[in-house]
């Protein structure tokens, strides 16, 4: 996946009005937007369809899908039918659950991102001990796209070494959670950034300063 300016906006706002107000200002800088539970639970899955159509962007849906294979497949089918280009799926549920999402994606010409390790402090308790195993599982399954934390660069580097240089790795945790944009891009292909942009007094200024900071 190509990502303009290497920045994926985490659109964790709670209404389409807020989403449009933000995107009217900053959509020229972006071509990939991540939509998760906050906006979809507030406004319905149509939010995915609407944002994609109105802003002509790729949508990564962050539903951190983590159910049995049959249920995962239904979630993936409905999400892709709504217009999502890609879906973030938890790896800890095991290969059969992940494979059901991959199968749905392949049938519809869409993509799956495998979540290895989350970026928040609590991820160290249960997820961290298995996150490298999840990355290995993804490689064995032939998965191309991964999510890994910008808040622990040593771990991100390790994930990159497992998945290889040709896999596509996106990384949340930049800004508000403490991750550094430029350092993260030593290992990741694109950054996922939410609050540092949508809570900034001037989102355009915030985005421009992040883009300036990552230009090599
Ligand atoms: O606001 P902030 O920039 O911290 O947003 C990060 C986004 O990435 C949120 O939507 C969060 O749910 C998501 N995320 C994360 N860590 C992961 C996977 C997704 O922070 N491992």
UniProtKB/TrEMBL annotation:
GO molecular function: orotidine-5'-phosphate decarboxylase activity
GO biological process: 'de novo' pyrimidine nucleobase biosynthetic process; 'de novo' UMP biosynthetic process
Enzyme class: lyase
Active site: 62 (for ompdecase activity), 64 (for ompdecase activity), 64 (proton donor), 67 (for ompdecase activity)
Pathway terms, separated by semicolons: Pyrimidine metabolism; UMP biosynthesis via de novo pathway; UMP from orotate: step 2/2
Coiled coil: none
Reactions catalysed, as given in the entry: orotidine 5'-phosphate + H(+) = UMP + CO2
SUPFAM superfamilies, per the entry: Ribulose-phoshate binding barrel
PANTHER family: OROTIDINE 5'-PHOSPHATE DECARBOXYLASE
Self-association and partners: Homodimer.
The protein, known as: Orotidine 5'-phosphate decarboxylase
């Amino acid at each position: 996946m190509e990502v303009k300016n290497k920045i994926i906006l985490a659109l964790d706002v709670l209404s389409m009005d807020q989403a449009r107000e933000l995107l009217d200002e900053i959509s020229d800088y972006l071509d990939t937007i991540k939509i998760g539970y906050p906006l979809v639970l507030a406004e319905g899955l149509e939010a995915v369809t609407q944002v994609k159509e109105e802003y002509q962007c790729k949508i990564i849906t962050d539903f951190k899908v983590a159910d049995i294979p049959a249920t995962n497949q239904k979630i993936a089918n409905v999400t892709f039918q709504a217009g999502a280009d890609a879906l973030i799926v938890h790896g800890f549920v095991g290969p059969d659950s992940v494979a059901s999402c991959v199968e749905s994606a392949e049938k519809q010409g869409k993509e799956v991102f495998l979540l290895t390790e989350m970026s928040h402090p609590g991820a160290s308790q249960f997820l961290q001990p298995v996150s490298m195993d999840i990355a290995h599982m993804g490689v064995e399954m032939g998965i191309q796209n991964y999510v890994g934390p910008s808040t622990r660069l040593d771990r991100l580097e390790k994930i990159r070494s497992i998945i290889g240089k040709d896999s596509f790795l996106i990384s949340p945790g930049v800004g508000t959670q403490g991750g550094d944009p430029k350092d993260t891009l030593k290992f990741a292909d694109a950054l996922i950034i939410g609050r540092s942009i949508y809570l900034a007094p001037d989102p355009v200024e915030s985005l421009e300063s992040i883009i300036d900071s990552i230009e090599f």
